[in-house]
Structures are given as C-alpha cells and as structure tokens.
Amino acid sequence: MKISIITITYNSAATLLRALDSVQCQTYTDIEHVLVDGASTDGTREIIEAYARKHQNVRWVSEKDGGIYNAINKGIRMATGDAIGFLHSDDRFYSPDSISHIVETFRQNDAQVVYADLQYCKNGKVIRQWKSNDFHPYSLKFGWMPPHPTVYVRKEVYAQVGEYDEWFRIAADYDMILRIFTAGFKTSYLPEVLVSMETGGASNRNTKARLSKTQEDYIVLKKNHIGAGYLTVACKQLRKIRQFIRK
Asked: 34, 59, 89, 125: least surrounded by Cβ within 10 Å?
C-alpha cells in the first residue's frame, strides 16, 4: 500500500527540515512525499530542491498559489498513493512507526478512512492532547471531529467527495471532514498519537482568526446540514477544554 503524504509550505525554512526528516525516518518505506511550495522567498525552495536530490520519493512544485486549500488540492492531484494524508511544515510524526500503524489499520479493518490522535506542543512541551475516540454519526451534531493532520483516506474517497472548498479561508478542512464522515465510508480509529503539532496555526493565531474560524464553522455546518448552528459550534469549542493538560 503506497502512502502519499502532502506537505504545504510557504516561507517554512525554519521548521521544514524537521518535518521532512520526520517523513524520511518512518519505518514504512512505500511513502511518497508531495511538497507544494507557494513560491517561498526565505530559502524553503532551496531546502526542498536539496532534499529531492537526496531522496527519490520526494515530488515537489514551487509556484504561486491561491492559498492553503488551493495548494492542498494541487497536492492531492499530484499524489499517486493508494491513501493520502497531510503533515504540516512545522509538525512531525510522533513515532517512526506512525505510518506503519496507519497502514496496518487500513489493512486489518478494510477501512477507507483512518484517523488517530494528536498532541499540541509549545517550545517542546506538550500542552494539549486531542483524543479522537470512535466515530458515531450522531456525534457530528455535537461538534465531534478528528484532528485533520491524522486523517488518512484512500484516494478514491476524494474522487467521490471532491476537492477542498477553496471559498473557505480557514474551515475547509472541517468541511472536508464532514463531507467524508457523512458519505458512508468505512472508518477506523487508531487510538494513539500520530502527529505532534506546534501551536499557532492559521485558525488559532489571534482573536480575529478564531472569530473567523467560528463564523466559517457555522457556514460549514449549514452547508452540510448538520447540527444546530452556533450551538454545535459551541459544543465543538467546549470539546477542546478537556484536551488541555493540567499538571
């Protein structure tokens, strides 16, 4: 089973090498790493070029794009794997066996969608654990969703549900997850941390970004005819509270 891992980059020179090494250190070998760079100007392109010369499983492009989700769609179209997942340019896999465990879960459960858990880190310290739990269709009404960087889907899933909706600036990943998890695909939960993510993503950068995310989440729910609007959005936010680690 060939796995395509897509990494979107833009001026990511400070963190990209760690993400690249995280992929190359996986014990599972049938991996294609697709890098989509938005014409970076900080040396990111040079890092990618050097890495691609060293590793034959790297495919890449560097050109201006229409934003994060435009770049993601470009990566999906470039991908040739049996299943596709994502690793952000400032994140890393939790374990060298992470992709092996994803593949085992696909095979053992004859799944079309596999997802796992995620941890948030700040300055090397784990501050939040996102535990997905098993999927139940009714849980979507109460704000449930798995962490997007842990979701791996067979390529034919995208052929059925379509590409990411580029109208959204922040919430197209939530929209895609709702589209996938309401389409009747066989899903399987891998109960372990798959990805370590650095805090400070596009949806949590500041108060304005969080407000925009809330508004887009509401539109996503209405678009997919799920839940009770802002009540479901509130449930989605409340789920985050128990994820924070208290010492």
From this structure: 125
